[in-house]
Design goal:
By secondary structure, this protein is of the alpha/beta class. The protein contains 4 helices and 6 strands; from the N terminus they run βββαβαβαβα. The chain has a 6-stranded mixed sheet. The radius of gyration is 13 Å and the shape is globular.
Length: 125
C-alpha cells in the first residue's frame, strides 16, 4: 500500500488499483470537507482507479443537506465519467455521520450506488 496524500483530516492510499481515502478524527467544517474532497478528486483523476474504498471509522462529520447536490455534481459525477463503478464505504462509529452519508446518495439519485462494509478487510477482498 502506498500513501499518496496526507493531511490533518484525510489520508489517501493506493493499493491494487483501488484508492483508499481515510478520514481522521479531526473535526471538519463544510469548507474543509469540500477542500479535502477536491484534493481527493484530483488524485482520482490522475490515477483513474478501478475502485474507491472510503475508510470512515473515524468520520464524525454530519454532511449538511446543502452539500448533497454539490457532492453529487462536483465529486461523484466526475468520478463516474472517469469510469468509476466500484465505490464502497466502511461504516463510521458515529451513526449520524453514517446516515448523512447514506442520505447524500439517496436524496440526489446518485449516479453511484455504494456498498457498505463493517471492516476494510471485507471490502478489499
Amino acid at each position: 500500500m502506498a500513501q499518496i496524500y496526507s493531511s490533518n483530516h484525510l489520508s489517501i492510499d493506493h493499493f491494487n488499483d483501488i484508492l483508499i481515502p481515510e478520514w481522521t478524527d479531526q473535526p471538519l467544517t463544510s469548507d474543509l470537507f469540500k477542500k479535502e474532497l477536491k484534493i481527493f478528486l484530483g488524485h482520482f483523476k490522475k490515477l483513474r482507479p478501478n475502485g474507491v474504498l472510503w475508510l470512515q471509522e473515524k468520520f464524525n462529520f454530519y454532511i449538511p443537506q446543502d452539500l448533497h447536490q454539490w457532492i453529487e455534481k462536483s465529486i461523484f459525477e466526475p468520478q463516474y465519467k472517469y469510469g468509476l463503478r466500484k465505490l464502497a464505504f466502511t461504516v463510521p462509529r458515529d451513526q449520524k455521520a453514517h446516515l448523512s452519508i447514506i442520505d447524500s446518495f439517496h436524496q440526489v439519485n446518485s449516479v453511484l450506488q455504494p456498498r457498505y462494509f463493517i471492516h476494510k478487510d471485507k471490502a478489499l477482498y
